[in-house]
Amino acid sequence: MMALLLRDLRLAFRAGGGFGLGLAFFLLVAVLVPLGVGPEPATLAKIAPGILWVGALLACLLSLDRIFALDFEDGSLDLLATSPIPLEGVVAVKAFAHWLVTGLPLTVAAPVLGVLLNLAGQGYLWLVVSLAAGTPALSVIGAFGAALTVGVKRGGLLVSLLVLPLYVPTLIFGAEVVKRGATGAEVQVPLLLLAGITAGAVAFLPFAAAAALRVNLR
Amino acid sequence: MSVWEYANPKRFMQVSRRVLPLVVGLTVVSLVTGLVWGFFFTPDDFRQGSTVKIIFLHVPTAMMAINAWVMMLVASLIWLIRRHHVSALAAKAAAPVGLTFTLIALLTGAFWGQPMWGTWWAWDPRLTAFLILALFYLGYIALWQAVEDPDTAADLTAVLCMVGSVFAVLSRYAVKFWNQGLHQDSTILKVGEKDPIDVAYYVPLVVCIVGFVLLFVALVLMRTRTEIRARRLSALLARERLA
Amino acid sequence: MIPDLGRYAVAVLSSYGATLALVAAVIALTLWQGRRVKRQLAEVEARQGKAKTDG
Prior knowledge:
The complex is a heterotrimer. By secondary structure, chain A is mainly α. Chain A has one domain (42-217). Chain A has helices at 2-13, 21-37, 41-62, 66-73, 76-82, 87-116, 123-148, 156-182, 188-217. Chain B is mostly helical. Chain B has one domain (3-242). Chain B is 77% helix and 0% strand. Chain B is built from six helices and no strands. In chain B, helix 3 packs parallel to helix 5. The relative contact order of chain B is 0.16. By secondary structure, chain C is an all-alpha fold. Chain C has a domain at 21-49. Chain C is 71% helix and 0% strand. The interface between B and C is large, with 42 and 36 residues.
């Protein structure tokens, strides 16, 4: 499993592997929104939590179809399916690799973009905490969507359509944490709910994704 | 005789052919009765005026929008557990009908909300949840269309339906948390309690609900029959190509 | 004929109109698909000399 993780990470960091693409997209969103909305600091501060979360979510979405598609095409997914590691484990490792390549950098970069969007001072801590708690769910849910559509040619758009409704609870609670954090309000409830969704998704969705992969590999 | 008899496509076709005219007849009778009653013979509400007549469309379609998804979930589970093709095809057949009901509920809600709340659309929990439900239907239908092999498509959509159900419920509570709404609570089940819905509306509303339930059943039966025929057609064509 | 809907006539009528239109659309789609598939199946069954298998 360790070898699989390292292999996935190496592939991602290689040129054209997609690392940094999500990050660049996230940066672009944070730059484009003030250009569209206008530079008033108060307005920006108000919408910053939502924009940052939506940006992170879309940046995550960009690289989803890479999780399984390339391995499916060159046949290495069949090898993985027959390997001693259970397919559920393969899914979990691949989702974890996806998170390390997209979710983690997004979490680290988010405070910088928060400055661009004039996020209130108390919000930074909760921005990082909520992204750290929420992005793993984005990767696992995304892996499930990618597993469903792995046999579909040009499934990128389909993945978005399938995955976006599943992202709704994470987005709502994640943005709520930042919004409350930025105004100094109580954050415990949404944060716990956010973490609960992540925990549930990480625990159960690899099974669903592995079932979908088995169907697609039949 | 067990229920599973009807899972045999041939048996299903025979029985549904005989049942369908009856269901269609009852649908027409109850829908026409309910809607004509609701539209022409109900008094105006003292606060909501004539817009109260929208309830006869809004409530039944909203109920059926959710019930259709539940029916798809049950059919998907039966397919995954017992591998009856009719079940998978019935789930596929129900999705566009459910999507239509969701859209009707959203549209009539907008027409109702405009004079009552002063806005076509508000990010009210129920409205938002229905919008998300419509997205789930779209994704489900899109996945059926995208996957070529029918059994693979049936399996994948069944898994999506199960996972989607969990997330749909989560979203429902998430949006409730996110925004307290303008939407009033359901009053249908409060008959006998204080502040119930008036009998003048209750009776035609029940007729309309029955009508929309029957409409759903009739449409799903028809569409399932079409799906079964389509499967047979593609099987025959495949055999022709081999020969 | 049409009851007096007062100042909300537009809302009520457009609700009923939109609903009837959408219901009619889904019924029409269902019937159209049904007829098309039934006709194609009948053609192929006749060509292959199969007995008709359903009504």
